[in-house]
Write a structure and sequence with these properties.
- The protein is mainly alpha-helical.
- It is built from four helices and three strands, in the order αβααββα.
- A three-stranded antiparallel beta sheet has the order 1-3-2.
- The longest helix has 13 residues.
Length: about 90
């Protein structure tokens, strides 16, 4: 370290060392909160997301008292949806 660079200490040093341990590519999350999933996949509000989860339209898993949305289950649900075939306008 040159004398022109300030010495890194304390929280900044710990934060930088954690960032270097994590690697350059951030890991993809395996679960989302219900509001995050509702917003990301359907553009729902927080309340709308919780209502959809209560109806079973958003898949959830319960860990202790908390509910999470597994990303893989959500993507599998979306992949399984078949779109109706549009017919040409009546002649």
């Amino acid at each position: 370290m040159s004398s022109l660079e300030p010495e890194v200490t304390g929280r900044r040093q710990r934060r930088e060392s954690k960032a270097s341990k994590a690697g350059s590519a951030p890991e993809a999350r395996l679960t989302l909160s219900i509001p995050e999933a509702g917003r990301k996949y359907f553009g729902l509000s927080k309340n709308g997301s919780y209502e959809a989860a209560a109806r079973g339209e958003i898949p959830t898993i319960k860990i202790g008292k908390k509910l999470f949305v597994p990303v893989r289950a959500m993507e599998a649900l979306l992949d399984s949806v078949t779109m109706p075939i549009r017919r040409a306008a009546a002649e």
